[in-house]
Amino acid sequence: MDAADATPLPELPATFARLRAAWDARRPDFEQRRSDLRRLDAAFAARVDAMHAAIDADFGHRSAHENLLSEVMIVRAEIHHALRNLRGWMRARRVAVGWKFWPARAQVQARPVGVVGIIAPWNYPVNLALVPLVSAIAAGNHVYLKPSESTPRTSAWLRDLLAEVFPPDRVAVALGGPDVGAAFAALPFDHLLFTGSTAIGRKVLAAAAPNLTPVTLELGGKSPALVAADFPIASAAARIAAGKWFNAGQTCIGVDYVLVDRARRDALVQAFGAELAARYGDLSRIDDYTRVINDAEFGRLEALLADARARGARIVQPIAVDPARARRERLFPPTLVVDAPDDSVLMREEIFGPILPIRGYASMDEAIGFVRDRERPLALYPFTHDRALADRIVDDALAGGVSVNDTLLHFGVHALPFGGIGASGMGAIHGHAGFLAFSKQLPVFRQSRWFAASDRLRPPYVGMVDRLIRWLAR
Question: Into which CATH architecture does domain 3-219+425-441 fall?
Answer without folding.
Answer: 3-Layer(aba) Sandwich (3.40)
